[in-house]
Amino acid sequence: MTDSNPKESRWRWFEAASAILMALATLSTAWCSYQSSKWNGQSSGFATEAGRANQKAGLLLLEGNQLTSIQAKMFMEFMSAHMAGNDKLANFYSDRFPPELRKAYDAWLAEKPFENPNADPHPFVPKLYEGRFVQDARLANADAGRNDAEAKRTSNIGAQYLSNTVLLAAVLFFAGTSAKFNQRHVRRSSFFFALAAFLFAAVRMFLLPVA
After folding, report:
1. What whole-number distance in Å separates Cα of residue 79 and Cα of residue 14?
2. Closest Cα partner for 181 from 169, 190, 172?
3. I need a labelling partner for 112 at 20 to 30 A (CA). Which of 4, 58, 73, 204 fits?
4. Which pTM does this prediction carry?
5. Treating both helix axes as pointing N-terminal to C-terminal, what angle do 99-110 and 6-83 enclose, rounded to 10 degrees?
């Protein structure tokens, strides 16, 4: 038996389309919420690692500066003994120079500082001396920078998934209320707005990486 009322038949088609759109929007909302949570979790992990690396770099620099201060004092004691003609005490200090100070001291002596007025005033200038843990601190800082960049990248992806959930919530609202309007043009406008918003959100969702 055929439907004797074409308007009622079209209305049933519209209700079915609205129901399908709402079902798709609901599933997409759940997926985007899940992905947003996953990406934000990754972002928190990277941020934590960046904080640890920054802390490690700070501790290494602090310890390195303390050692540099000790080595500078050792060098000054050596120079005082050397200038006083106390070779035994001067040799006592020079024999105990740590590797980084020994390398800088030998390079400084090669400049003939007692004869050459253009020589560096002491071995602790940057081109001669590199404190202990400096390289380790640089590596830790680089690691912190990489983790910080990853934290921002993953946070941005999570934010895009979250914005998709907001957009899909609007789809659910307009698709759900479209069937309640009596005026046909209002009903259709609400439905097609919801459809257009869903398609836009779907395209964004497929373009985003998956955690």
Report:
1. 95
2. 190
3. 73
4. 0.74
5. 60
